[in-house]
Amino acid sequence: MGLFDKLKQGLKKTHENIFNKIDKLVNAKSDIDDDFLDNLEEILLSSDVGVNTTEKIIKNLKERVKEEKYERTDQLQAILRDELKKAFVSGNGEVKEPFKVDKKPYVIIVIGVNGVGKTTSIGKLAYNYKNAGYSVLIGAADTFRAAANEQLETWAKRSGTEIIQLAHGSDPSAVVYNTIQSGIAKGYDVVIIDTAGRLHTKVNLMEELSKINRVIQKQLPDAPHEVLLVLDATTGQNGMTQAREFSNSIPLTGLVLTKLDGTAKGGIVLKISSEMKIPVRYIGVGEQIDDLQVFDKESFVHALLED
Ligand code: GDP
Ligand code: MG
Description:
This protein has two domains: 3-87, SRP54, nucleotide-binding domain (Four Helix Bundle (Hemerythrin (Met), subunit A), Up-down Bundle), CATH 1.20.120.140; 106-296, P-loop containing nucleotide triphosphate hydrolases (Rossmann fold), CATH 3.40.50. It contains twelve helices and eight strands. It has helices at 3-10, 12-28, 34-46, 51-68, 76-89, 118-131, 148-159, 172-185, 203-219, 239-249, 267-275, 297-305; strands at 106-111, 136-141, 162-164, 190-195, 226-232, 254-258, 280-284, 292-294. The protein has an eight-stranded mixed β-sheet, sandwiched between helices. Helix 10 (239-249) links the parallel strand 5 (226-232) and strand 6. The longest helix is centred in the first third of the chain and has 18 residues, at 51-68. The chain starts with a helix and ends with a helix. The chain binds guanosine-5'-diphosphate and magnesium ion (MG). The site of guanosine-5'-diphosphate has 19 residues, from helix 6.
């Protein structure tokens, strides 16, 4: 299956939620009146697009309808797609070329609360970097859960990459130290650090992240090159708070939104992407190793609104 088809399949629930409802609305009404716009607003809100973004979209739509004299609602599909795309563009940072590294080792840390999909996303990331021709070393700095090493090992095997681990209960900073050291000594292209899930409200665990950051910088002053915060799209509403709290301990460079295949409220990506300063870099659309996609707003909106 091609990438776009995979994306479409992953966004199926959200697509049904948004597209089918809009389609129904467009077919049921022939004028773009207040009633139409109210209904549209409700659809966008119910798919978690967010109040601010929805208001912006509705306001822009109203203006365009006035200016461009759109009289029939079926003409609205095109403008609507256009406005959704625009809402995506604002607030996003630079777009980096995916899976291409310009430093060696290129260090990525993956953080987030429990169960959001950090380890799974690392497996998928490792697979993608490996496929791009790079050697990848994974550091198992989630020493908190007994099963964590085993889970990460499975992903390393699947992706054909290497892993550094210490005994369960070891200091995560020690794992990070060893991994960076080995990454440098053995000339790995990419080093990815897995971390234990932590509540953004637990001060000592958040401080541990700062410590991990310092341990990396001692060996590689310009690292980490990426700090990815993983957010679960099915519980997305809390994402803003998590991003704020995590960024107090370590500067974030990007977001990974997982489990989009499991929610009809994938509009959360639109909300987060337009309301947060940190760019959405990747989206998870399934549990398999090739189910991580580089987030691209054009194809996202396309997959969401195309029949
Ligand atoms: P961690 O605690 O943050 O490391 O989370 P895990 O990587 O262990 O993932 C927790 C659960 O979420 C696992 O059952 C994964 O298979 C599942 N998961 C992760 N990403 C996705 C995704 O994109 N789609 C789906 N459907 N499940 C996912
Ligand atoms: Mg994990």
